[in-house]
Amino acid sequence: MTRLLQTIEPILWRDEQLHLLDQRVLPHTENWLAFYDSDAVAEAIKLMVVRGAPAIGVTAAYGVVLAAREAWFSAGENWQEALIPALKRLAASRPTAVNLFWAIERMQQTCNTLSKYESPEPALLEQAKRIHQEDVKANRTMGQYGADLLDNDSIVLTHCNAGALATAGFGTALGVIRQGFIDGKIEHVYVDETRPWLQGSRLTAWELMQEGIPMTLQADVAAGALMAGGRLDWVIVGADRIASNGDTANKIGTYSLAVLAKYHGVKVMVVAPTTTIDWSIENGSQIPIEQRAHSEVSEIEGHAIAPAKVHVSNPAFDVTPAALIDAIVTEEGVVSSPSKEKMQQLKKEEKNDTNSISDRM
Ligand SMILES: CSC[C@@H](O)[C@@H](O)C(=O)COP(=O)(O)O
Question: Where does substrate bind (predicted)?
Fold first, then answer.
């Protein structure tokens, strides 16, 4: 019988408000923030109070609920028009994770079915809750599909945080690691600290330690030596946007890991729900890469670690070509050695739009 591990859920809807666990201050402080206006939700996504592609999508869906409430109060029967600027501000919060645009578009589709004479909030809230629950369910399914790929006593490396905190609960890459641990297949997890924002040391280490999953934190630059030592089986990561040929954008440093893994014969698993696939783009070169504040690199917790006015580059993501990926695990199934043709098996009803979702926002 499958043991169901309960994990933290970083997004809650309670008392007609959205509540987010503030990921900027973890692991030292567990602070929940309440949101009742959509612009504050857009700002929270931008500032990474909430982060991780699926979590951003779920949060944006609730942001649309709040925006619709505001539009109904301010514009009555013209609420649909009044809603559009707020949706644009939500969509402008972060550019790379496609789940954001997917969730806003799905909420907009619900808007299109509603009467202009009635408050849209109940129907939109129901839709946002559905998106929320579907993500938890997808994570559980992916967890098992991914764990089934692992041999007994596997030693794995993960990068960034693709855990419960990055989703509605359970996690994508960490969902596989959690399920693998439950199934007795995980011997040890190496966690990259993930400079510059330190999602690995602050968030992934916190999640794994809470559950007693054996882990070691390491500097990102230690990955090559770990692989050369010969005791690593899989690199397991999440994704922010997957192109229709399987090229995958994920946290900066993932590409370097995949190149190292290829050289050392270590396998690479990408775990992401189908809401992370952008069928409208052919390959990874079309994925917009977010540039974040220079201070994320030149400072740590407000303390300068570089000369004043140093020139900094801070791309938040990189693209790993499909040829370096051994398996893409989704809730619709696993694609081994992904290619444009093989990715098609994951397609259900998605339309093959020519414009990318983010272009349409
Ligand atoms: C399930 S999360 C997958 C990705 O979103 C994750 O690996 C990642 O890159 C998150 O980046 P972040 O900048 O912290 O939002």
Answer: 51-53, 94, 199, 250-251
pLDDT of residue 301: 86
Whether 251 has a binding-site annotation, put simply, is yes
The 10s digit of each residue's pLDDT in 321-354 is 999 999 999 999 999 999 999 999 998 755 445 4
Q: Which residues line ligand 1 (CB under 6 A)?
A: 51-54, 97, 160, 162, 166-167, 172, 199, 237-240, 250-251, 316
pLDDT in tens, 52-61: 999 999 999 9
Does 3 appear as a known binding residue? no
Q: In percent, how much of the chain has pLDDT > 70?
A: 95
- The separation between CA 65 and the C-alpha centre of its own chain, rounded to angstroms, equals 21
Site to substitute for ligand 1 among 7, 51, 241, most atoms within 8 A of C-beta: 51
Catalytic option among 135, 192, 233, 240:
240
Tell me, what's the ipTM? 0.98
Is 353 in the active site? no
Q: Which CATH superfamily is domain 11-138 in?
A: translation initiation factor eif-2b, domain 1 (1.20.120.420)
For 222-255, how does the pLDDT look when each residue is reduced to its tens digit (9 = 90+)?
Answer: 999 999 998 899 999 999 999 999 999 999 999 9
Q: Are 331 and 141 in contact (CB under 8 A)?
A: yes
152 marked as binding residue? no
Residue with tokens 């954008």: 249
Tell me the backbone φ, ψ of residue 191, rounded to 5 degrees. -120, 115
Smallest CA separation from ligand 1 atom 10, residue: 52
Q: Are 88 and 45 in contact (CB under 8 A)?
A: no
* Average of per-residue pLDDT across 72-85: 97
**DSSP conformational letter for 348:** S
b/e sequence 103-112, b meaning 16+ C-beta within 10 Å: bbebbbebbe
Give residue limits of the domains in the chain.
11-138, 144-350
Q: Which residue has the tokens 């666990």?
A: 21
Cβ partners under 8 Å of residue 89, min gap 6: 38, 39, 42
CATH number of this structure's domain 144-350: 3.40.50.10470
**Amino acid 342: pLDDT:** 97
